[in-house]
Design goal:
This protein has one domain: Rossmann fold (3-Layer(aba) Sandwich). It contains five helices and ten strands. Strand 2, helix 3 and strand 3 form a beta-alpha-beta unit. The chain is α/β, with parallel strands linked by helices. The strands form three sheets. Strands 1-2-3-9-4-10 form a six-stranded mixed sheet. A two-stranded antiparallel ribbon has the order 5-8. It has a two-stranded antiparallel ribbon with strand order 6-7. Helix 3 packs parallel to helix 4.
Length: 185
C-alpha cells in the first residue's frame, strides 16, 4: 500500500507530482552529472532527456539512457521506483532518488539493504507546485491559491536523498541551507 502522510493537506494528485526545488537537483547534478530525469512531467523535467507519465520510466531499461539518473517518484508509488532503482543498479546504473523520511514504511527495509548512500536533509523542503490549484484552508482559515512553480510551504515530513548504485558512503546529513548557497533568487 502506498504511504500517506496523514497530516498533509495537499491533495494526493498534487503530492504525486510535486516538483523538485532546483537547488536540490543542481547540488546532486554537480556530483553525479545526470543523464536523464527518470520520473518527470513535461514542462517540469530537469534533464533534456526524461521519462514522463506517457513514456513511463518503469517500463524502460535505464542503463540504455546513460549512467546516472535523477528520480523524484510519485508519492503514491515510491516502492515501485525503489525496486526499479535497485534492479537497474545491478547493471551499473546510479539512481539518485528524493524521498520523504517515512522510515516506518515497509520499503525502508529495501532502502536499508540496497542503498549505497543515504543523505538526510536538515530543514524542511518546500516543493514546487506542478499546477495552479487551491488548498482548502479548512475551518476559519482562508483557502490558499497556488500557481504552477510556487513553493509549497508546510512540508510535514523530513526529506532524504537515497542513492542506488555507485560509491558506498556512510549515511550522512546535509543542510538544506548549505545546498541553497549560490541559488539564484
Amino acid at each position: 500500500m502506498a504511504s500517506q502522510q496523514q497530516s498533509s493537506k495537499t491533495p494526493l494528485h498534487i503530492r504525486d507530482r510535486l516538483r523538485t526545488p532546483g537547488y536540490i537537483f543542481d547540488f546532486f547534478d554537480r556530483k553525479f552529472s545526470f543523464d536523464i530525469d527518470l520520473c518527470a512531467e513535461k514542462g517540469g523535467n530537469l534533464c533534456a532527456l526524461y521519462f514522463d507519465e506517457e513514456t513511463d520510466g518503469l517500463a524502460h531499461r535505464w542503463p540504455m539512457y546513460g549512467g546516472a539518473g535523477w528520480c523524484n517518484p510519485p508519492f503514491s508509488s515510491q516502492e515501485a521506483w525503489i525496486r526499479k532503482a535497485i534492479y537497474e543498479g545491478q547493471f551499473g546504473f546510479v539512481t539518485v532518488m528524493l524521498l520523504p523520511v517515512f522510515n516506518g514504511q515497509a520499503y525502508w527495509q529495501l532502502i536499508a539493504d540496497n542503498a549505497t548512500q543515504i543523505h538526510n536533509i536538515i530543514g524542511r523542503i518546500a516543493f514546487l507546485s506542478p499546477e495552479d490549484f487551491v488548498k482548502s484552508g479548512g475551518g476559519d482559515k482562508p483557502d490558499i491559491h497556488f500557481k504552477e512553480g510556487d513553493k509549497l510551504p508546510g512540508n510535514t515530513a523530513g526529506t532524504c536523498i537515497v542513492v542506488f548504485g555507485g560509491d558506498i558512503l556512510p549515511m550522512g546529513f546535509l543542510s538544506r541551507d548549505d545546498m541553497r548557497k549560490g541559488e539564484a533568487e
